[in-house]
Amino acid sequence: MNPGDIVRGIVDANLYLVLATADADGRPWSSPVYFAHEGYREFFWISSPDVRHSRNIAVRSEVGISVFDSSAAISTGQGVYMSATAARADGPDVERGLDVFSRRSVRHGGRVWTAEDVGGDSGMRLYRAVADDHSILAKDGRPDHRIPADLGPV
User: Which of the residues 15, 75, 122, 139 has the least number of beta carbons within 10 Å of its own beta carbon?
Assistant: First the structure.
């Protein structure tokens, strides 16, 4: 199987991504968030702007993302690693992102999300990250040997 197919399979099969952020001083933080994606490059999640990862994104938009099956047996797991730029969704990205997020949420037993759910006094906001690259572990016995995954045209 080619690396792009592996990336697509892992992203489609998992509900949560791990979002790695850092504050203005570079102190790291990671958070699991339920996500939806568009074209395996654009990722959406809903969070409070007051939580640490959201505050970190507000001051430093560069993030790391990993998606993996945490129940895989030792030495059999595979993960997707991405560098991305994240921000709170704004303008037309909110409506489009909510559509993407809601479709996946409903497929997983959740609900449809509306602009009212992520605006005003709701306490929640929609966030969007755009991945710059994707890689997977090479599985060739060398520690942390990653290979890029070309996803082709979206």
Answer: 75
For the chain, the domain total comes to 1
CA angle 43, 92, 81 (to 5 degrees): 15
Q: What is the pTM of this model?
A: 0.94
Residues 68-110 have pLDDT tens digits of 999 988 888 899 999 999 999 999 999 999 999 999 999 999 9
Q: How far is the C-alpha of 80 from the C-alpha of 77, rounded, in Å?
A: 10
In-domain check, residue 114: yes
Is 148 within the bounds of a domain?
Answer: no
* Start-to-end Cα distance in the chain: 19
Burial of 111 (0-12, 13-18, 19+ CB in 10 A): exposed
Closest by CA position to 89, among listed 120, 46, 131: 46
CATH label of the domain that carries residue 121: 2.30.110.10
